[in-house]
Amino acid sequence: MLVDLRGKVVCVTGSARRVGRAIMLACAAQGAHVVIHHGNSDEQAQQAAAEARAYGVDALIVKANLEAPTAIADLFQQIAAHYGRLDLLVNSAANFKRTPLLDIELAEWESVINTNLRAPFLCTQHAPA
What we know:
It contains 4 helices and 4 strands; from the N terminus they run βαβαβαβα. By secondary structure, the protein is an alpha/beta fold. The longest helix has 21 residues, at about 105-125.
């Protein structure tokens, strides 16, 4: 890795599953303490945390609905309370809708935009705090 992550605190949104989980585990393997964020994957988050801890690092699980700005603020408050800092943020959470574009309802479209566009913006704003 190009960056030494040993002892750093890394938050990967959407890290209970898929690409986010792979990124989080790669960071843990390099010695980073990890924040495992998920929206609704309790069991997978527990499994991901166990895998991360096997590398000898701390793993904090935080469940937060990234469509809600207050939940995003709470996510970063929990990180600050647990670690006192955040060294790296990886915006990986995503909302996948399989509805054809011409059939998608406005509420569903807004859900996609809120998770895939607004949430990374808000997370990035909260990260340095």
